[in-house]
Design brief:
Length: 346
């Protein structure tokens, strides 16, 4: 995957260091954002396209400092509006490779409207959704993804709100590409960014990220070295959904339409009984089941969950302009200014 030249630009020889700006990175020591920054810089270097063809666009939040740390074009926008600005940038210049950076609060609360409509329109950009289940920059309020009952500064007796499942929200908005990683797995995150950039349309990459100050350990069950193998299912298209420390657990579909965790070798279960992942299935049902799995009942699905081909907004926009121009007598601005009733001022 990393050897692929994603766009038609002439190959360039860049390294991750070429994408590092001269700005001091001011995230807390141990913050998961450091790992994601590393992954983005590695992925950009692997794309083999010039730096001026990238634009990193963010909203407001800890993760939204991202443009300052990238030696590319960037835009630090306003709260919740990163998707709207990124949509405009991509529509105005479809040749740019857009990476939009947003947190769970920025994207799913004040920015929720722009988030779902960017997905619905299928704007060709990659959205990195940092999910630490808390508001970090504003010092520890519960967010749209905070678990019910979580005690924070704005929920001193525990939040009574039902949290969003980001993948469920994206799939409801007709997402064609959804992937998930964790901040500690730089290799996987890099691969997913490359896959998202290769996909034509809106690519959502949810990164389960740890806030060491206000929600430390939110994803411990799937990141701790003692338990992660039993609670991570890294999906690969065309491969069986097998996981576990001993690679002996897998998923089957029950008669009630629900996923069931089984152990290979028990009750006659063989490897051939384990489901094969089909990321390209246009029916979103399996993607919905996989993305909604949570520990400890299930492993958490990582990797590319859904990757379905569809025309992007820009492709349809460019084609529509060509179609209109083909039958119109007005081909350019001069034609427009000289059409209809005109007069000459002397």
């Amino acid at each position: 995957m990393t050897d692929t030249i994603l766009k038609s630009h002439s190959p360039v020889n860049l390294t991750p260091k070429d994408f590092k700006s001269d700005q001091e990175v001011r995230w807390c020591p141990g913050c998961g954002d450091h790992g994601v920054l590393n992954s983005v810089q590695k992925a950009m270097a692997a794309m083999n396209i010039p730096k001026e063809k990238f634009a990193v666009i963010s909203g407001i939040g800890c993760s939204s400092r991202f443009p300052y740390y990238m030696d590319t074009y960037g835009f630090h926008t306003i709260h919740g509006r990163a998707a709207a600005v990124a949509s405009g940038v991509k529509s105005a210049n479809p040749d740019l490779e857009i990476i939009q950076v947003s947190g769970d609060g920025d994207a799913l609360a004040i920015g929720g409207n722009h988030f779902i409509h960017a997905i619905r329109r299928n704007i060709d950009m990659t959205i990195l959704l940092f999910n630490n289940e808390i508001y970090g920059l504003t010092k520890g309020q519960y967010s749209p993804t905070s678990k019910q009952g979580m005690v924070t500064k704005t929920s001193p007796f525990g939040t009574i709100e039902q949290p969003f499942q980001p993948a469920e929200l994206a799939l409801g908005a007709q997402s064609k590409f959804y992937a998930r990683s964790i901040d500690t797995n730089i290799k996987l995150t890099t691969e997913l960014i490359l896959a998202g950039a290769k996909h034509k349309g809106t690519s959502i990459i949810e990164v389960l990220q740890n806030c060491v100050i206000y929600n430390d350990g939110a994803h411990t069950l799937i990141t701790d070295k003692e338990t992660k193998d039993d609670f991570q299912l890294i999906l690969h298209h065309g491969e069986r959904m097998i996981f576990g420390k001993n690679r002996n657990k897998g998923l089957v579909l029950g008669g009630n339409g629900k996923l069931i965790v089984v152990t290979i070798g028990e009750f006659g279960i063989t490897e051939q009984d384990i489901l094969v992942h089909d990321a390209h299935n246009p029916d979103p049902h399996m993607a919905w089941l996989l993305s909604n799995m949570s520990a400890p009942e299930y492993p958490v699905a990582l990797g590319v969950i859904r990757d379905v081909a569809a025309l992007s907004y820009e492709e349809k926009m460019v084609q529509q302009i060509k179609d209109v121009q083909a039958v119109s007598s007005i081909k350019c601005m001069d034609d427009l200014l000289n059409s209809g009733d005109t007069w000459e001022v002397k």
